Automatic annotation (TrEMBL):
The lineage of its organism: Bacteria, Bacillati, Bacillota, Bacilli, Bacillales. InterPro entries: Flavoprotein-like_sf, FMN_Rdtase-like_dom, NAD(P)H-dep_reductase. GO terms for molecular function: oxidoreductase activity. Its EC number is 1.-.-.-. This is NADPH-dependent FMN reductase. Residues 23-152 form the NADPH-dependent FMN reductase-like domain. Keywords: Oxidoreductase. It is an enzyme of class 1 (oxidoreductase). Belongs to the azoreductase type 2 family.
Length: 196
């Protein structure tokens, strides 16, 4: 325990909590048959895992039985909330549908509340214009859910980062941005953990 920590009385338990690796979920935002989001999510995870600074996992909303919010009670809603509660931060893999996020992602966002609060998130988006319009819509939603979205935002083009808009072949230049985004997600996730 450092001198200042001794002075201000940080307990060993608090110290351990601060040093624990964070759990960051890489959330796949689409459930469409034939979707490309798993390729993008695996790419983000492969970059993230090399950093060894947090526990990264793919969280696929397609694996949760999430009915349209308010239409039914399912075990999937509870499981979704439990998964989110385990996480300290998020990376949203966002695809643009009619200039916004996908309906399944909006529904997944609406299907939890407290489990999102006071956590941080980064966005990796794709589309004809890098998914920028969808990502900006997501930022507004995250504000309401008290998720702090970081500045750096890798944008992938359906034309230059995919072959035939189906095979993901990302340009090298995105690597730096993904790491910068992850730096910011980790810093803010760690900070926000102290107020939960
Ligand atoms: C209904 C629909 C609407 C779409 N609208 C847009 C759009 O507004 N802007 C855009 O850049 N791409 C648009 N796209 C293309 C998707 O971004 C592209 O198909 C992408 O691969 C979808 O992500 P996914 O494969 O992970 O589901 C649209 C695709 C669909 C099926």
């Amino acid at each position: 325990m450092g001198f200042l920590d001794k002075l201000f009385g940080k307990t060993p338990e608090e110290e351990n909590t601060m040093n624990e690796k964070l759990n960051i979920g890489i959330i796949l935002g689409s459930t469409r048959e034939g979707r490309v989001s798993p390729q993008v999510g695996e790419w983000v995870k492969s970059i993230a895992d090399q950093r060894e600074d947090a526990n990264y996992e793919i969280v696929d909303i397609a694996n949760y039985d999430l009915p349209f919010m308010g239409t039914a009670e399912t075990a999937g809603i509870a499981a979704w909330n439990e998964k989110l509660a385990e996480l300290d931060g998020f990376v949203f893999v966002v695809q643009e549908y009619n200039h916004s996020i996908s309906a399944p992602l909006k529904n997944a966002l609406d299907s939890a509340r407290e489990a999102w609060n006071n956590k941080a998130a980064g966005i990796v988006s794709y589309g004809s214009t890098g998914g920028a319009r969808a990502a900006e819509h997501l930022r507004g939603i995250l504000g309401e859910l008290m998720v702090a979205d970081v500045r750096t935002h890798p944008t992938l083009s359906l034309f230059t980062d995919f072959e035939n808009m189906a095979q993901f072949k990302p340009l090298e230049i995105h690597l730096e941005n993904v790491n910068m985004m992850l730096d910011q997600v980790n810093t803010w996730s760690k900070a926000l953990k102290t107020i939960r």
